[in-house]
Design brief:
358 residues; 3 strands; elongated
């Protein structure tokens, strides 16, 4: 059976751009190929200067043209704000699974379904988001979405199970992100830096390290710029040092100092940026935990006060049997790539006498 890490890697990296040749091509830069170009251009000062023009390199390898999927996300969010939920869902459906925006699209599509009172649709999206393949990297909000959807149909068991899953699966991540907010660096970030070669970065370059790093940090333009400068120094400094061994060229000496200085500055700036991104996620986690606690309080209050509840249904062990009000999922708990984002959920609505706003 495929490992969870392999499943994430295979699904989200499918269709992504590979290394380009030559080193600089539309949207993609290979640092290794760039270093080879530098090596072959030591005697060509004009070409060498062009290769070391950071503004040009960064603009061609990090700042992407607006892609169709980004346009679809913007349109979907605009339609969501206009309460045109069906149209928003249609736009979210345009985001392919190979996109780094796909999980975002699934999450926001879930909120669209919930806003139009289609609880079945909302739960279907959370079934994808909180599958074992993605649970460790999607953050806190999908848990809130799922628990709230269960609450809207008075599936108190489902809400409590979601709260329990959140506590069990997210505690370590929340703690790691809090530590990163204080330090700005951890082993996972160093792994990403060590592995990075193709820019712009993608989930393919992050993989399992995403579990202990801020959500979508690799799409942050500043983060990409700083990591690129570090990698250019790592690859370029040995090349320039080798050239200087047989020549005391002043331009090469200047280039060497510039690469080393840029890398040192980039490490400090990257640390500060990661602190900020981690703190932003920590703040969001705190907000979500507060909302999840409100749901827990609401569920507890309903269980103890709603007169129409069948108390025997809450007896210990009774939920092992599926009743007519239970959620039924036609799967064995092991997600496969072609099943993700295709779940369907059938639900029963709340009895009218126990509806209540939070």
């Amino acid at each position: 059976m495929k490992s969870r890490g392999l499943l994430i890697h295979t699904l989200l990296s499918a269709g992504l751009l590979g290394f380009a040749a030559p080193a600089l091509a539309q949207e993609t830069l290979s640092v290794k190929a760039w270093a080879k170009d530098v090596q072959s251009s030591v005697q060509d000062k004009a070409r060498l200067s062009r290769l070391l023009d950071l503004t040009r390199v960064e603009s061609e390898s990090i700042v992407r043209p607006v892609a169709d999927e980004k346009s679809a996300m913007l349109k979907a969010r605009t339609l969501f704000e206009q309460r045109k939920y069906d149209a928003a869902i249609a736009q979210y459906n345009r985001i392919p699974k190979s996109s780094d925006s796909w999980l975002e699209a699934v999450e926001e599509k879930g909120w669209s379904y919930l806003r139009k009172d289609d609880v079945q649709g909302a739960l279907a999206q959370t079934k994808t988001l909180l599958s074992p393949a993605f649970r460790a990297v999607v953050g806190s909000e999908p848990f809130f979405l799922q628990s709230l959807a269960h609450l809207k149909i008075c599936d108190y068991k489902g809400s409590l199970e979601t709260l329990t899953t959140f506590s069990e699966s997210q505690k370590a991540r929340i703690d790691d992100i809090q530590k990163l907010a204080a330090s700005g660096h951890n082993e996972a970030l160093q792994n990403v830096i060590d592995k990075a070669d193709a820019f712009p970065l993608s989930f393919h370059d992050v993989g399992e390290n995403a579990k202990t790093l801020p959500r979508l940090f690799y799409r942050d333009v500043s983060v990409q710029k700083y990591i690129l400068r570090i990698k250019m120094a790592e690859a370029g400094v040995p090349v320039i040092q080798e050239a200087l061994a047989s020549s005391k060229d002043r331009l090469l000496q200047t280039i060497l100092l510039r690469l080393e200085k840029n890398a040192a500055n980039a490490r400090e700036l990257l640390r500060d940026r990661m602190k900020k991104l981690a703190q932003n996620e920590t703040n969001e986690n705190f907000r979500m935990v507060q909302k999840l606690n409100l749901i827990k309080v609401e569920v507890t209050q309903r269980v103890h006060t709603d007169q129409g509840l069948d108390k025997n249904s809450f007896a210990r062990g009774r939920f092992n049997e599926a009743g007519e009000d239970d959620l039924i999922f036609a799967d064995d708990g092991r997600p496969w790539i072609d099943e993700l984002d295709k779940y369907q959920v059938k639900v029963n609505s709340c009895p009218q006498n126990i509806r209540r706003k939070m």
